[in-house]
Amino acid sequence: MDMSLPVQTVRTTCPYCGVGCGVSATVKPGTIPIIAGDTAHAANKGRLCVKGAALGETLVLDGRLLYPQVRENGSMRRAGWDEALERVAGGFASIIAEHGPDAVALYVSGQLLTEDYYVANKFMKGYVGSANIDTNSRLCMSSSVAGHKRAFGEDLVPGAYEDFELADMIVLVGSNTAWCHPTLFQRILKAKEARPSLQVVAIDPRRTATCELADLHLPVKPGTDVWLFNGLLSYLARHGVKDSAFVAAHTEGLDMALATADADCGDPAQVARICRVDPAKLLAFYEGFAATRKVVSAYSQGVNQSSSGTDKVNAIINCHLLTGRIGHPGMGPFSLTGQPNAMGGREVGGLANMLAAHMDLDNPLQRDALRAFWEAPRIADKPGLKAVDLFRAVEEGSVKAVWIIATNPLVSLPDADQVRRALEKCELVVVSDIVGATDTTTHADVLLPALGWGEKDGTVTNSERCISRQRAFLPAPGEARADWWALCEVARRMGFSGFDYEDAHAIFDEHARLSGWRNGEGGAGRRVFDISGMSGMRRQDYDALEPIQWPVLRAADGTLQATARLFADGRFAHASGKARFVATAPRLPVHALDDEFPLALNTGRMRDQWHTMTRTGKSPRLANHAPEPLIDLHPNDALLCGVREGELARVTSRWGAMVARVTHGGGIARGSVFVPIHWSGQTASDARVGALVNPAVDPVSGEPEFKHTPVRIEPFVVEWHAFVLSRKALSLDSIANWTRIQGDGFVRYEMGGRGPVGADWARALLAADGEADWIDYEDGSAGAYRAAYLVDGRLQACVFVARRPQLPARDWLAGLFARESLGALDRATLLAGRAPQQGPDAGPTVCSCFGVGRNTICAAIRTHRLETTAQVTACVRAGGNCGSCVPEIGKLLALASCGEEAAQ
Amino acid sequence: MPGSAGAFGEQLSGAGRERHRVGSRMNTERKSARLVLIGNGMAGMRTVEELLKLAPDLYQITVFGAEPHGNYNRVLLSPLLAGDKNVDEIMLHPRAWYAEHGITLHAGDPVVRIDRKRRVVVARSGLEAPYDRLLLATGSTPFVLPIPGNTLPGVVGFRDLHDVDTMLAAARQGGRAVVIGGGLLGLEAAHALMRRGMDVTVVHVATSLMNQQLDGEAGRLLKETLERDGLRIVLAAQTSAITGEGKVEAVHFADGSVLPADLVVMAAGVRPNVALGREAGLHCERAIVVDDTLQTFDPRIYAVGECVQHRRATFGLVAPVWEQARVCAAHLAGAGHRRYVQAATATKLKVTGIDLYSAGDILGGAGSEELILRDRTSGIYKRLVLEGGRVTGAVLVGDVGDGPWYFDLIQRGADVSSFRDRLLFGQALCAAT
């Protein structure tokens, strides 16, 4: 390491949730970058959540995919970029030649930078000529996109984060903001502290951490949000809480929407029954909403991930349109984005039913405009396959090649085992990723190493339309390259022009120019998304770009003009310039509960993990909040299912099953179950919740119903529970159930299993040979076995087994892995799993029969003023057996009396 | 709860009150009663000591001993042999002590006959001593294998100062020693002889060392440690003969193997000395049978130590003998409210550098459970036997610090269920919350 290299601080953007916090990374060569919040970024003003703060720990290269690989005779081997790219280009070209453009597809990700996304979309829609490019944003944001388009004519988030601070009421619908958008939640928390009159309403079937801040929590029955907001619309209309001028001038379709709402939801008491909430609380919410002009209604996956997700979005927006609470400070509907660049992906048309720059697939003028801009040979003219349908088509064989970039559909898609079947059948599976082993990469025919956060360079857009730079501060590891580069190389090899970008800046410039291209001209419609003000930027200006909210136009004086809020002028993006009310007839989730599957499965994130844990899973400090996959349910339901907290249970739906540990988080109503989404086949034996999730989707958005799958729960019977801490990763094929947890310098496994355990079993498990320095503890009748394996006095691995899940705490043992060698004391209590206790120092042993030390004897002599050896024996037993120490005790007595005399 | 510290203390103070009453009554009789002790060893003399504490003026006491010394601590013969202690240090009651306490000592003049009708004992010298109460503490003698050559010069037991002298004389010549018996005593002797410069082999009939006190695994660990120290150990060895011209030269085994030897130590167990009692017509089985008060079938005659059998058990360790002495003394003093109750015993091997502790019933029966901790590299092995949530046995090798605590738990019958999973890791950890 060259110590003379300068310390460098790079401002970039966090790669996790849609809040899009500014991050400053201080890099000193040879050390882990120091991560801090960027005080100059408006989204977070220097704050970071725990995930963001731990980013430095996720940058280690273990497990990274560093070289291209291709499948040969069934197994993967390293290949050069040329060979790998040829294989992709050749495969795509021949499949297109034989089966047409719709036989290939791209499945990309909200983790991509806008530039990567732009190129992917251009490649598919303009050159391959198919709209078969969908993204994992389909799984989180597409209902919001569809709702926005129906209401506003374009996928637009009207407000800004600042509105949360300016509001008098914040309604959080289906959003565990505290865990999923933590820095925004911190802003709300601060605002409420400063101004306690700020009302916070949480609408969530679960009593999440977010609800702790709420003045009112409405624990609605899962899937009933449309009733709730239809009821609100009806209530507002009946009570005259309506901005008639706004409605008249800037909206259309109220009558229909209101009639629909009144039909089912005109009676709050009835709504309360359907939503299964306290009628008084429901009215309190309606009254509060009615009485407060400055209301922000923020919503997230609890709204979007539903078979009526789009209607939920519109039911919320309807209430804001009726009251004219949109486009002004402190108010408006607000979609909180899940991923760091879901919004950026939408800008470039990364979904199968849209074109780049917010142009519409079904708008011939816009199609033409786009083709002309790209000078593309063709342009997709019909929507492509949305995520769930895409992988069905792969299984059916109509899609024969798929290129998966920066996402892990084998874990994240609903009915995830179907995705596995699909990829097993697929002719050509290309996967671009930063991680070598994921559930998805194991099915790849070609693996392309991508750049990770800190290595890649480009832009992302957060939930408030703010474009921020992600900047590289680390060198590209191995042969990893940017995704846009790989896409361009494949495009060029397929004979496509228009893919010779020099860098991300060149792509961004094209993207910015496109946003202004024929925007509003000749009947093609005005697109609100317009960042043409940023076109023609010099490279250094792009590099120095400050976070900026779109639309971005260039003022006459040459400065960039950001836009904090949309619709202040009442102009919307529909051709009419008006916003539309959408009639939302409420309907229940597609799959109803029944006797066989009586519980409603809800899935979501945990506070300290991100998606499939390929990054957060590397951080020991993030591992402790929820180390294991869990099944959170009400204690009464647990009783009915015969499962117990702390033990393992199996959750089964019609689509699949998984196993995790039962917990009572205290926030789950009866009839519901919550399971986190993070665990994959890499981190747990059997905890992919995606395999259970029903594949029903919203008819408009195609977004799956992640929040409502009928399931049943039953005990997962194991004969023993165990944990292992090991410096090396272990092979756990023989273990019935396990979870892998990253520790500091070790890997931890929590396990449950069947069959005999003992020394031979443990040695095989920990890969210790017969000569190993081995300590073990056995309590056969209690079913307990514990062992530790040391190498040169250094703890290498340990295993603790018990019949019940109650095992010693892992913390102290974990700390031992930091030591170069263990002292005798630590070694002695190692298998107790507890630090040695320092009793009073007994001194050197005098009486070995009774184990009495010199200090103990002297203390007894002093305290009890003993004068004879017989008295000493009577007092502390020393000398009472074989008597060999009696002379020594005599000496101690003599010394003590000398001491007394000397003292006198 | 017998043996608990509290009850122990109470009994002591109770006995104290008793003593004053008894003492004042006895004083008036001016030592009219005569007590004769046969066997000037630890058991008998401890009984005398305890008796003097309770009733110093009750008896005229006469002691007969086969050995020409005062009473010494036989337990410390091993350290004596090893050179860790000298004779003065192991002397419990030098001759002067007897004089001080008005006790008549006949050392080196063993009793050869008891005439129960006349209530007289007859010594080898012809001396007769009448008794009102007789205390038998004749101890035991090493078991000498009934094989050819077992009386050759150079074949010794390990029982008394004379044996030690014989061994030390042999050790000064260097040469080879064979110790027959891999029990506590045999190993202590072997180790001591090795430290005295001899080339020592222990031959043991069983397949594991100290099989009375240790389980197989502890025995193996002990064997490894001793072998590391330089001791040779042969297990499952059936000794068939000792040969030599005029003195020991070799030990022969059933499998045909032969070990050259300049010294053979018989440490294959002891036999209670019951001949005197049996000839006197006292009821004997394997040893002189006593009841819970240590009284033999003749109400005037008591017996303590290794020569007694109490409810099928005979004794070889010091701890139960001390207890017998206490009980017997109380009865001799006329304060007869104590009963002898057999209790678990604990053993330590007195070999420098080897930590070994065994207590209670280490085998366990049906329904017993065991906890085991093994750390071969550190030479640590710990095993506890549990029954019904209580510790009943303990074997500790390598780290014996908690031995006395486990022994205490065994004696108290303490319920350890609540800290069972920490039990084997020591008292300090169990005390912690």
UniProtKB/TrEMBL annotation, chain A:
GO terms for cellular component: membrane; oxidoreductase complex. This is Molybdopterin-dependent oxidoreductase. It comes from the Bacteria. GO terms for biological process: cellular respiration; nitrate assimilation. The keyword Iron applies. One of its GO terms (molecular function) is 4 iron, 4 sulfur cluster binding. Pfam families: Fer2_BFD (PF04324), Molybdop_Fe4S4 (PF04879), Molybdopterin (PF00384), Molydop_binding (PF01568). Belongs to the prokaryotic molybdopterin-containing oxidoreductase family. NasA/NapA/NarB subfamily. Keywords: 4Fe-4S, Iron, Iron-sulfur, Metal-binding, Molybdenum, Nitrate assimilation, Oxidoreductase. CDD domains: MopB_CT_Nitrate-R-NapA-like (cd02791), MopB_Nitrate-R-NapA-like (cd02754). Residues 7-63 form the 4Fe-4S Mo/W bis-MGD-type domain. Its cofactor is Mo-bis(molybdopterin guanine dinucleotide); [4Fe-4S] cluster.
UniProtKB/TrEMBL annotation, chain B:
Gene3D superfamilies: 3.30.390.30, FAD/NAD(P)-binding domain. Keywords: FAD, Flavoprotein. Residues 34-314 form the FAD/NAD(P)-binding domain. Signal peptide: none annotated. Its cofactor is FAD. Pfam families: Pyr_redox_2 (PF07992), Rubredoxin_C (PF18267). It comes from the Bacteria. Residues 346-413 form the NADH-rubredoxin oxidoreductase C-terminal domain. The keyword Transmembrane helix does not apply. The keyword Coiled coil does not apply. Residues 1-26 are annotated as: Disordered. One of its GO terms (molecular function) is oxidoreductase activity. Belongs to the FAD-dependent oxidoreductase family. This is NAD(P)/FAD-dependent oxidoreductase. It comes from Massilia litorea.
